[in-house]
Amino acid sequence: MNFKNLKNDFKSKGYFKILNFFDKHTIKNLNDEIKVIAKEKPKNIFFYQDRNNLIRRMEHFYNHTQLLDNINNKIQITLKNIFDKKFFLFKDKYNFKPPKGEGFFPHYDGIFNWKDKNGKWRKGWHEYANEFVNVLILLDDFNNENGPLEISKIHDKSFNELIKNTKQNGTPDLKRDLANICQFEKMICPSGSIVIFSSKCPHQSSKNNSDKDRGSLYYTYNPAIYGNNYTNYFEEKLSSQNKQSKSLSGEIN
Ligand SMILES: O=C(O)CCC(=O)C(=O)O
Predict the structure, then answer these.
(1) Residue 32 lies in a domain
(2) Which residue's alpha carbon is nearest to atom 7 within ligand 1?
(3) 246 Cα to the center of ligand 1, angstroms
(4) Domain tally for the chain?
(5) 42 part of a folded domain
């Protein structure tokens, strides 16, 4: 792995992929553990459904098993090697994409306004930090049929500028005319690969048109200079008055 090249790719495009970062045995164990969690639905793990009542997401689980925690530790070390600075885990999510599971409209991550429990308007994720790095761990192969993640070049601007590019409806979805001029690259990679991308990269995906589940694990980090926000973020998300579900709102194609 050439850390310098990866850092340069991130600087110019806002994303890069590392193929086969985790071995197949680890991926199988992860898939098995996630199946058990999804079945047992522990109380402190949060589950979200789409408008077709399919379970599409779970959050707040990284310390539920030793393996999930080890994955986080390994990624933190890798981020430090690539970016020469320490990162804290900001949030974790697992996206379920069953056959016919809908895609995601083009969006940034964390660029939306939300009302806190006292009725005060707050600035998306940027209440907690000004830089976020998403790490996607592919738990299944991503191919043309199963609605792979698609990423476009970073819009490296401030929250106040980026929010003007969004629909400003409580989601970070991009305005249609802007989304139309983004050039999205499909992340076609084998399971075990990881994709590292800035939250300021527009990204989208289409419906899962295959007959198999497609799972993806996302760990999002902020540089350590912004502190450890994991607990605070989830507490405030739960008590937020903004109940608009981020992007589980419809297929795009
Ligand atoms: O898993 C996908 O299809 C895309 C996920 C995504 O864009 C998100 O969760 O922000």
Answers:
(1) yes
(2) 204
(3) 10
(4) 1
(5) yes
Angle 212-106-182 from CA coordinates, rounded to 5°: 115
Do the beta carbons of residue 101 and residue 207 sit within 8 Å? yes
Q: For residues 99 and 211, is the Cβ–Cβ distance under 8 A?
A: yes
Q: pLDDT tens digit string along 104-162?
A: 999 999 999 999 999 999 999 999 999 999 999 999 999 999 999 999 999 999 999 99
Contact at 8 Å (CB) between 84 and 73?
Answer: no
Residue 194 lies in a domain: yes
Q: Is the CB of 109 under 6 A from ligand 1?
A: yes
Q: Which residues, listed in sequence order, are joined to residue 30 by a DSSP beta bridge?
A: none
Domain membership of residue 119 (yes or no) is yes
The Å distance, Cα 205 to ligand 1 centre, comes to 7
Give the integer Cα–Cα distance in Å for 120 and 167: 20
User: In this structure, what CATH number is given to the domain that contains residue 232?
Assistant: 2.60.120.620
Residue 134 CA, closest ligand 1 atom number: 10
Ligand 1 centroid – CA 81 distance (Å): 26
Whether residue 205 has its Cβ less than 6 Å from ligand 1: yes
* Domain hosting residue 187, numbered range: 3-239
156-199 pLDDT, tens per residue? 999 999 999 999 988 899 999 999 999 999 999 999 999 999 99
How many whole angstroms from 109 Cα to the centroid of ligand 1?
10
